[in-house]
Amino acid sequence: MFKKVLIAEDHEVRNLGVVNTLTELQIQNYDFVNYCDEALQKIKTAVTNNSSYDLLITDLSFDKDHIEQKINSGQKLIEEVKKIQPNLKIIAFSIEKKPKIIDDLFKVHNINGFVSKGRNDGKDLRSTIKKVFSGETVIPQEILNSIRTLPSSLQNMMLPLLNFLPKDGSKVKLNNILKKIK
Fold it and tell me: What is the pTM of this model?
């Protein structure tokens, strides 16, 4: 099993859930950070000291606060980490649901697993950690199904349009948006 894990997550309660999962897997050596810049610095220091991390578990979105950050997303963190430690195993742990974004995590950023935050995320994270440790790449089935249903050229056209849809699913807002498009 993994010997040294870094968790990059800006919500303390989520960190506790990840720590609980690591404890259940008998992973005792872990650090957690709330900022991407701090995560990158910990990885750099660990590599320099010949005590590299085996696994990075990172969220994709980080809330802005009073502390200025150079890296403000999990995607950018992954990109920077890969320059320093290209073979580091990475699991994204996020509420992100957009298939294109998740697909890019695997195809562009070469992550090893993705876990959706939700009802069974502890069980899913535990399973994903085990599978990634054994060399598997873990893509959730619902994401695979979504990616397969649309041709990539259509996905590239449709996904930017989806960003204009109301986040709350309001039909009134949707009708107003559609009227503006006409």
Answer: 0.78
